[in-house]
Structures are given as structure tokens and as C-alpha cells.
Amino acid sequence: MQNLGVQKVIVNEESLLVKEREMRQTFSRDEEDHLVGLERNVERLVGYLLEGDSSQVVSIIGMGGIGKTTLARQAFNHGKIKSNFPGLAWVCVSQQFERKCVWQTILQQLWPECDVSKMMEGELLEKIIRVLETEKALIVIDDIWREGDWDLIKHVFLPRKGLKVLLTSRNDEVALHADKQCVPFKPECLTSEESWDLFQRIAFPIKDTAEFKIEEDMKEIGMEMMKHCGGLPLAIKVLGALLGKEYSLHEWKRIRENIKAPTVRASGSDDRNFNLKVYGVLYLSFEELPAYLKQCFLYLASFPEDYKIDVEKLSYYWAAEGMDFDGASIREVADGYIEELVKRNMVISKRDVDTSRFETLQLHDMMREVCLRKAEEENFVQTIDTMANSESPCKSRRLAVVRLPEETFNVDTEVKNPSLRTLLFIKNGELKTRSLFFTRHQLMRVLDLSFAKFEGGKVPSSIGKLIHLR
């Protein structure tokens, strides 16, 4: 981003432990726009969950982008579910997680008055079991990947009447491992008619009539491009949002020619050719972004999978990188950028109920794959998220330390790049740092020490040498 003299020194906010524990939870919103082909599936799924004598575990299985989380969200927020289950909890597991965080999130939602911040695993386990013994509950475990992951968290799900567990996963073996009597639910890709219906709702939103009018030539081109979406709702929404911003036949033809299948890391469980076509659509959605939005979008590669990104903090990061304000406030500009990304279906957002301002952002797994791929291609940011991943020297000018639980992190020994401009600490667990001496990183412009714990409790005096902090 261009340096435009934006003012902000250090983003250093006091952390709220419980709030941070919730940051890996996916959204369970009460509303979902553009539901096509889901109505019957929602009712069937709700029926399975309400069957008292059936299996304790119900699973939604399918490839990425098919709408597993959307379907689970609709069931979770269904009136019949809310009236039947006094206890409701939603937690995302994903590929990297900590059992303690998962149990904290579950207990916090089942028992909001309970302070979970200082509880150890044994106490969390005891209290969750106690709550589940006294009330009917539905617990959604979203995006669980491996059988071993279930084994780590299963101790709270003792067999008992009144408890239902809803799993979403790409791996059907996970559900069967959790419960041999599991009820599997496998959403199908949208039909051609349903795909076109959803596409029109996104590309040509008309509030006053259910009729969508489109030129025959554009329809033919649109239908041709729709084949790349493979009936996946996510890809259809992204394509619809992309084409909805281009109103000429010439532009539609140009986009048709530009849809290509980039080389991406495809899931081993999905058909590779199909996967590449879908990613081609998602990849193009990035390429069609204006330059300033590309920079903002790539910044999201700094955050771990399923992380709920705080918009207030993100806006300060963007500002320090040189976001163009043109007389407006930091939040006004940031909200405008986020609004554009939301309309393009590239990010998932959550708004504050009272102010309607954006509160958090999240990336869908497949869109995050595009973000990571492009960030790697452009050497935009490097992340250190495990002990084995700290392969310095860091060639990027941006570094995000994402996950080093119970480990000491020393900037001078771990980071060799004297040209480092941005250093962010983004935690899941406790982060300890032995020392942070910045004598070799005097070009630093963006620095977030929110989760850094200094030896002796004192900030190193060498931080005063960072005269370029924004």
C-alpha cells in the first residue's frame, strides 16, 4: 500500500480472554440471504435433530463450498430447534484447534453467566457434563476434519437422552467414528435451474418483482460460465456478484475468456478437475478487484483458519499501511472497503446489532485458499503458526506470529529480515516472549503487541528506536 501519512502508532489493546476464545467460532446468524434449494433440506435436517430415539449424532457431509455451514446455521436458528433445545452451542474446530478453547466456547454458550477464562480442562469437562445432565441441548461442531479431532473433544458428549450433536465435515469417516448410528446428511450440488435462479438473485437483485430480465446473449454467456461453478453455492454467489458489477455484453465476454483454472492446493477428497474449475471462478474474483481492494483482501492472509477478525483492529492495520482516507475517518473508509468485499461474496461479515457497523470478518475455507495462494505468489505476508513453521529468514516485509502456545518467541533470533515493516502477534493460546529488541528492525511501521508478554513485564526500551511507526 502507498504511504499516505496515515496516523496511528501502535495497536496495543487489552485482550479479553473469553472474546478471543470465541474468535474461532463460525457465525450462527439468524438471517441468510439468497437461500436456493435449501428449504427442503433444512426441514429434513430439523426433523432428524428432533427425533428423540434416533442417533445422538447427525452429520452434514460434503465438499467445500456446498453449503454445509449455511445449512447447519439455518437448522441451528430454526424456531422448532430453539423451542426444543434450551441449551444451544456452536463451535468451529477446523484443522488446528485447542481442546480447552473448544470446551470453553461450549460452556460459555450453554452457561453464559459462567466465567470460563481461568478454568482448566478438568473443571470445564465437569461443568459441561453437569449442564448437559440438567437440560436438553444441541451442540454444533462445525468444520471438523479428522477422527482424531473428535477423540480429543468427545469426553463432554456422554450418551444421554436430550443431547444432540450436529457435525459438519468434508470427511464422512469422522461422523461414523463419532457414532456408528450417525444419521448422515449429504447436500447435493444445485441443479442447473437452481444454480441459474441463485445466480440471477445475486447478479440482478430486483426487489419489486420476482421476474429477472436478461438479454439472451448475456444469458447464454452466463450459463456457459455457470458450468465452472459446478453447482456450488459459494462459487455461484461469487460469480454472480462479479458479473453483477459489469453490465455490458462486452465485459461479460471478457470475463468469460478470463475464467481459468489456476494451480491450487486441492483437497484430496475432491475431484481435482472439478475443484480447479471452481477455484478458477474464485481466483478471477480476486483478479477483478481494484488495486486498493486487492491489498486489503491479501492482508486477511495474516489470520488463521476460521478466525473472526476484529474489524476495528483491522482498520488500524490498513491505516498504518497507507489506506487512502480522502478526508474520512479510519472506520468509515474501512467499512466502505469491507462493504465492497461483502457484496462480492468474498468475505463473511457480522454487524453490530445496535450500530449496524461491521464487527468481525471471516473467510470461507475456499476463498481463504485463494487469499493464501495470492499472498504467497506476491510475497505479501509470512506467517509463523507452528514451531515447525518458523523457517526464517522471512523474505516478506510483513510477518504474523499466529500460534506459538507455551513457546518463547524472540524477534532477533526468529526474524532475520531487517527490512521488516509489519509485525503482528495473533494468538490462540498463551504467547510468551523472552525479549523483543528492535535494534535491527528500525523500518517497522505496523506493530501489534496486544498478546506479547515481556520478560519482567517491561516493554524493551529499544522500541523507542522505531521512529517509522504509523
Automatic annotation (TrEMBL):
Span of domain Disease resistance protein winged helix: 303-370
Gene3D superfamilies for the chain: Helical domain of apoptotic protease-activating factors, P-loop containing nucleotide triphosphate hydrolases, Winged helix-like DNA-binding domain superfamily/Winged helix DNA-binding domain
Membrane-traversing stretches: none
Keyword presence, Repeat: yes
Key words, A-Z: Plant defense, Repeat
Keyword Repeat in annotation: yes
NB-ARC domain: residues covered: 39-207
GO aspect biological process, one term: defense response
GO function terms (MF aspect): ADP binding
Name of the protein: Uncharacterized protein
Naturally occurring in which organism (per UniProt): Brassica campestris (Field mustard)
Taxonomy of the source species: Eukaryota, Viridiplantae, Streptophyta, Embryophyta, Tracheophyta
